[in-house]
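Hi! If you just cloned this repository, the fastest way to understand the data is to look at a raw example. We've pasted two of them here, unedited. The first protein comes first, obviously.
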Amino acid sequence: MKKVIIAAVMVTVALSMVLVACSQTEEEDGAPRIVIGTDATWPPMEFIDQSTGDIVGFDIDLMTAAAEASGFEVEFRNTGWDGIFAGLATSEYDAVMSSVTITDERMETMDFSVPYINAGQIIIVPAATEGVTSLEDLSGQQVGVQIGTTGQFAVQDYSEINVATYDEIGLAIEDLAVGRLDAVVADTPVAANYALQNEDYSESLKIVGEPFTEEFYGVAVRKGNTEVLELINSGLEAVLQAGVDEELAEKWLR
């Protein structure tokens, strides 16, 4: 009898461990709740509003709209980037939405939602600049890039452009602001953070044209977690079709 009791306890404990390891998705007021890990240090995509302490940004607004469209509750959990994918694998949250570029390597270990934004390289110029919308328009001009980035590789394909390389993109932005450069190339969120959100540059710099490389962001979920993936995709597809992403781009990225 004692062995039977012990066996029953062990089964109960094992079942509890399985349940803990399963998705964090829970019912809240009759609707599923999805917990999303995000590293809130990447303005304007996700960051902490210093006046309220809330996590805000493009990603937050987009997923909030997607949750409403798909009928689930969403909770954002601020998580350091260095362990964000490990936390996903161990079910600390259901998904990761944190300016995550969809890559073949990442797709081997996790599933991704539909792409929701092309965060590729874009051009920043002084506010007074006219007639620049593409790299072709920068022939003969001095353009700053960060070493080792896709921006550098793209600009170097244009032999007519004079390329200035920097260890940090912030240094290139400083030189652009004081007139040492004609333009800077950076990925879209970084460009928006400097040219739109940063008070030191928001009036003197502007973003022009459209992204000219493809670096799509997506929401990562655990491999095989079709329940969460379908809910997220349903919401994202609805808001993308409705043009909510364009409205949020005007708010956060342009």
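Ok, and the second one:
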Amino acid sequence: MIFVTGGAGFIGANFIMNWLLQNDEHIVNIDALTYAGNLESLSSLQNDTRHIFIKGDIGDTTLITELLEKYQPRAVLNFAAESHVDRSIHGPETFIQTNVVGTFHLLESVRIYWNKLKEDSKTNFRFLHVSTDEVYGSLNKNEPAFSETHRYEPNSPYSASKAASDHLVRSYHHTYGLPVLTTNCSNNYGPYHFPEKLIPLVIVNALASKALPVYGDGQQIRDWLFVKDHCSAIRRVLEAGQLGETYNIGGWNEKTNIDIVHTVCALLDELRPRHDGKKYCEQIAFVADRPGHDQRYAIDAQKIERELGWKPAETFETGIRKTVRWYLDNQNWVANVQSGAYREWVEKNYTV
């Protein structure tokens, strides 16, 4: 039995589905079902007894303690987080509460549970914390990619809150001996991605004949990681990672935002042409850049390949084609997550 927090979110849901394809070990999935948590993403597991869903917050120590005692997991994987930079700029307190205070309460609950385990179970237990490359700050165009020893320089309330959670996890290993592992990943993309993020937003807006908003000049650079590759990396770190260590997970795919938009448009031109014969790229609209926008993220993923033998299976070209195809084939899922609140959010943040 393993625990997954935030398992109704984008990465968490993909991890659960991929986990249950690999083995029959049961999963307890704890998610607060905030705006980005969507049980419809896990509808294929509705009658699967290996997946136990419980609505709850990682900061609810009474609930988490009860669940740990009841199910006795061998590992806790913490995906639960507020994760959108734009939302953190407009409402930072939620990010502090979930990512910092919530992680602290989760760690405390897990530490107490772990201390009560018998010696063999205690030795084999793992707490795996899923984090982001944004904790490292921003790179210039010619600087080396982020390694695990790069100093933390978070530039947004979101990345600062994740940096704080990383430090808490580290401290619980060094102070209390809690057997922790931390992963810092680059930008994920793939199925079930909430359509406020760049790639799904472009797909959804393109099909709806809306503007395709691009911040600033679109020259911001990100490393892109197909979500199923991320899931396989996490499984490998959980299986063989060295206690107390951090592993950077990247896709070796540095792309500018504007290149991403053009790539998605070209795939849509091929797979779902516009009725008027025009190109989707004609819908691109440059909008005011967001405050403090980091220029470049890049992950050096040599450590996880060297020590654990992991590397991504997808190139960006194969992964983005699978992603666009999934959104074309799953329009009902997209429609169901686009609530009125979501539309207001996009209107507020992406005004042409």
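That's it. A detail worth noticing about the second one: Residues 28 and 52 are 5 Å apart (CA to CA).
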